[in-house]
Amino acid sequence: MDHLLEVNNLEVNFKTYGGEVKAVRDVSFHVDKGEVVAIVGESGSGKSVTVQTIMGLIPTPPGIIKGGTIQFQGQDLLSLSKKELRKVKGSKIGMIFQDPMTSLNPTMVVGKQIAEGLITHQNLSKQAAKARAIELIKQVGIPNPEERYGQYPHEFSGGMRQRAMIAIALACNPELLIADEPTTALDVTIQAQVLELMKDLQEQTNTAIILITHDLGVVAETAQRVIVMYGGMMVESGTVLELFENPKHPYTWGLLNSIPDVDGPEKKQLVPIEGSPPDLFSPPKGCPFAPRCKFAMDICVEEMPGAYEIGEGHHAKCWLNDERAPEVDHAFAPKKKEAVAVGSEA
Amino acid sequence: MMVEKLMEIGNSQLDDNLVEVRSLKKYFDIKKDVTVKSVDDISISIRKGETFGLVGESGSGKSTLGKTLVGLQAPTAGEVIYNGQDVTQLDKETKKLVNKEMQIIFQDPHASLNPRMRVGDIIAEGIDAYKLFKGKERENRIYELLERVGLRAEHAKRFPHEFSGGQRQRIGIARALAVEPKFIVADEPISALDVSIQAQVINLLEDLKDSEDLTYLFIAHDLGMVKHISDRIGVMYLGKMMELSNSDDMFTKPLHPYTQALLSAIPKTDPRAAKRERIVLAGDPPSPTNPPSGCRFRTRCPHAMAICAEQAPPWKEVEPEHWTACHLY
Ligand SMILES: Nc1ncnc2c1ncn2[C@@H]1O[C@H](COP(=O)(O)OP(=O)(O)OP(=O)(O)O)[C@@H](O)[C@H]1O
Ligand SMILES: Nc1ncnc2c1ncn2[C@@H]1O[C@H](COP(=O)(O)OP(=O)(O)O)[C@@H](O)[C@H]1O
Ligand code: SF4
Ligand code: SF4
Ligand SMILES: [Mg+2]
Ligand SMILES: [Mg+2]
């Protein structure tokens, strides 16, 4: 089957004073029509760079796209001219950023920013574009759409700005919506509104969504598949159920053990991941997680693990999944207290 | 020493509450004729040895309450009672001693540490201000504190930018501990940190609470962490306290419609959880300069009645130890 989006072996570096940063290393994944794929990982793990590369937003220099392909509906986005890419983006891919203030134009009324895309990409008349923009403002749940059309971004609250961004992204009826931490800056009640809105859209228009988030609750509630990134690499990927119930990478175990259990009657002991995030200037030649991994073996430092197939569509880059590796007992069993404690420095 | 004098005063008024506020108000005049009532008539008490969690939307007044509690800001009206004495009425000298016992840890580990100071001197800010130790003793105290928060003695000579966010937060914690406080306000100490680092800091705070006999006011957005760490929880909205109860009751039987919406908005980490009917609040929080009449939540409340616009609901103990301000009860 042809995928809507297919990314293969993507490598992106940045030239900086300190040396060359390997921001994205050998990233491959796909997104199908109507699917929500989440990307999680700590800050600096390469999530934004990955999606910005898809959108052609990496400044070169300092960025260098070292290798890989990005196929969207069969077209290689990396080989398109700027003009051709703009056309695809304007009509088929929409993007929402974490901080809407930096991506909205502060000197233009919000309504015009929505209408603009409709005029250039859908050949609507000024009149028709305005009417459609007002409709979109209403659709994303902003009250008094006519009045709001003529207001500037600073007159909107954080949640309303984020919804305005969604309206801009939706103006072109995109096949793919890329949302980079769309709710991180918002309060939970406003986050719930924005997520609900995105879910409705996905259901009504069958838009595929790539959702970057650091909130595992948001992942569990909205995505079908998850990609876990660490140190510029995809360390695990699979369906949401697989990732939460049968995770196979120590970093994923660490993430799940670091979050409290809101529903449980008992207090779960949090088992943090010790140490700090990796240095991307001189990544170790082996597994990037090795310096923080409780299960690291000699081989981990020497050689990069391959992507082991755990089940259908479930991959983990960790030597523990090699048949020659020792068994790790109870390394991960969420919600069971005694099991969770195993592996911590007892 | 002065500390002993302080302890005598404290002893004469023995009760369970370490910090108490009565009808506390903190207003800011931001323009001519425009006032923000950031904390508006709040009365709560924080018990010795407990962790009191404080939640609420951005701008609801959590930080303002925290800062006013530890004396970083003077209240507009009301009392702040520490160990039985009204701090606002104390003479300067005694007030300084009381303030030493109350420390604050800030949200942003980047902004709250002076980038030009070495870590050792940052940690010793309080030691120097109160002239607690000098020379070799001071140095040893710094090393001891660094180790206490999971850093190393050699870190004392470095500058804040050489540390990660989680490590910087540890430096902030060491600075707060330096003067041997009894009460610590932790204002969103983990919001700026990665998930994998948050648990490190939470576990450290919990360890320190036991080993140093601390009492916490823990302010946070992340309701999951608040539940994890708190004994009791207070919920704020637009400068008012909406609900207060122990942590379990708050999560199992929230009374106030705002608390109910807040809890229902938490994304659950169980992918099998049945698709829930979520209470999605309409609209945004109103402007704090012009809050709604009567109940401040009424413009977004699914249960609002006529009386809610006319009268502010009284603060009421609806069930034992479970308080709320809502006309439904
Ligand atoms: N020094 C000040 N001058 C003017 N207004 C202020 C000041 N400090 C706080 N405020 C206002 O008081 C209200 C409450 O602010 P506060 O910082 O206490 O909120 P908060 O609950 O801590 O929010 P957040 O979750 O965003 O940290 C806000 O409307 C804020 O703009
Ligand atoms: N324009 C740039 N110049 C130099 N380095 C960059 C640039 N953009 C991103 N990086 C680096 O690439 C790495 C991955 O960043 P990013 O994808 O933004 O992480 P995140 O997973 O938090 O979204 C980081 O080390 C970051 O500092
Ligand atoms: S490959 Fe080795 S170091 Fe890396 S996660 Fe697996 S066990 Fe840990
Ligand atoms: S007092 Fe009225 S408006 Fe306020 S929370 Fe209760 S029912 Fe809702
Ligand atoms: Mg990012
Ligand atoms: Mg605050």
Low-confidence stretches of chain A: 333-346
Task: Could you tell me the CATH topology label of the largest domain in chain B.
Answer: Rossmann fold
Q: Per CATH, what is the topology of the largest domain in chain A?
A: Rossmann fold
Strand content of chain A: 15-25%
Overall 3D form of chain A: globular
Shape of chain B: globular
CATH architecture title of the largest domain in chain A? 3-Layer(aba) Sandwich
Q: State the strand order across the main sheet of chain A.
A: 6-7-8-3-9-10-12-11
Order of helices and strands of chain A: EEEHEEHEHHHHHEHEHEEHHHEEH
Q: Can you count the helices of chain A?
A: 13
DSSP summary: helix tally of chain B = 12
Query: Could you state the CATH homologous superfamily of the largest domain in chain B?
Result: P-loop containing nucleotide triphosphate hydrolases
How many DSSP E strands of chain A?
A: 12
Quick check: average pLDDT of chain A?
Answer: 88
Question: How many independent structural domains of chain A?
Answer: 2
InterPro entries (chain A): AAA+_ATPase (IPR003593), ABC_Ni/Peptide_Import (IPR050388), ABC_transporter-like_ATP-bd (IPR003439), ABC_transporter-like_CS (IPR017871), Oligopep_ABC_C (IPR013563), P-loop_NTPase (IPR027417)
GO molecular function, one term (chain A): ATP hydrolysis activity
Domain ABC transporter (chain A): 5-256
Membrane topology (chain A): Peripheral membrane protein
List keywords for this structure.
heterodimer; A: 346 residues; alpha/beta; Rossmann fold; eight-stranded mixed beta sheet; four-stranded antiparallel beta sheet; 13 helices; 34% helix; globular; B: 329 residues; 2 domains; 12 strands; 33% helix; binds adenosine-5'-triphosphate; binds adenosine-5'-diphosphate; binds iron/sulfur cluster; binds magnesium ion
